[in-house]
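Q: Could you write out the predicted structure for this multi-component system? I'm mainly interested in how the pieces pack against one another.
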Amino acid sequence: MFDLLKQACDAATKEGCQFADARYLAIRKQRVLSRDLALSSCAESDDRGFGVRVLYQGAWGFASSPTYNAKEVEKVVALAMRIARASAMALREGGVKWAPEEALKLAFKSKCDQDPFKVSLEDKADLLIASNQVMLKNKSVKRAQGYLLFKRVQRWYVNTEGAELESDVTSSESVIWAIAVGKDDFQQRNWQAPASNRGFESYRKEEFLVQAERVAAQAEEKLSAKLSPEGDFDIVTDSENLSLTIHESVGHATELDRVMGYEVSMAGSSFVTRDKIGEFQYGSDKVTLMADNTLENGLATQGFDDDGVPGQRWEIVKDGVFQTYSTGREFSHYIGEERSRGCCRADHWSSIPIVRIPNLFLMPGKEPLSPDELIADIKHGLYFEGMDSFSIDQRRLNFQFGGNGVWEIKKGKKVGMLKAALYQSRTPTFWNACDATCDKNYWEPHGVMQCGKGDPLQIAQMTHGAAPTRFRKINICRGRN
Ligand SMILES: [Zn+2]
């Protein structure tokens, strides 16, 4: 597989480029959806092709093709070079400064005990429909749905520095949900089996059935739940709920390409300017946010990025203080770092790599602390579980997040579900209001499979995580009257 990719790099070198890399990708996906007692769709795709990126006099050129032979490789390199030459004419400020990296030869394979593409469609249908059956036993539940998503990406990467890298990564995701209908209201409650770089072995039918019964009962309970109170309250977030808040208010806010203005027209910039490195109090001293592209089964763990840089682990926020960003080889010089953090990923053979959020999680508390103890210290507050609607502004500063299951806390105990609760805050205000997070026994990972960024849009995946965490005096508002 490497031969033609090397041929592409050699051809680009002869044309006078400073650097070139070539990637071949085979992407297989399967998505199975169920609705009530039937499968509603099953789609499968197998998509292969290669892309060549060249850096010429400080300017990029990129071209790609689904046809993989010597003649096509020649054509694609010539097109990438033409684009780079044209781009070089319009350069300002000397162009791309490319961070050095050791040329590695390595192969990475994610853990996958049961290849999901070898599991029969009957077994997948059985898992989903059995779960729907359990949810529909609840008389208030009028619709039960679920899906399974499997993805396998095989990748071969070569560059002009001599790197020869290959990876084989299988990812799985599943969600089931129940919709309960009442007299004048309907409510949805879901369970996300944590998405990860694992195979079908991560899904156990017994667990699906237990969760199906729970979400059906809670969808029904949400129908008669009272509307959330409004005002300042102490809140507790579970791992899944906080994962989305970490993603939006820390993950996207600390992508260095966004900070430097490369993403502004698509999804906004960031308030985390470079003068904040090592100085800015992002959160309280309980807040350490760790980036880790070596995390076992993490969705962003793929051995190396599409700049040819291996996965790394570093602190984005340490004891509350902002440390550094997620970067790629093109961006590290902007903050005086000599080496890339290895975050540049492309979602397809026809996409260019861009800086993506790494696996990023809140470190658990150092002292023993259970969720019951965490809640016991709240007189009147709210407990947020799971992901729901959210919004965040174009500087990743002002936000609001809901929860898929929200409970009222009174005198240190969860007392009943609430409807339409949202917590609203500013990123540093929120993280500085964190006064405790449970210990490592309660820490859980949660995956994001559909993170959108770039123009044209690219979809990336990464893992977040946290233990249940408490925030003091957060503004609670309602999503409806
Ligand atoms: Zn995202």
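A: Regarding packing and overall arrangement: The chain has a mean pLDDT of 97.
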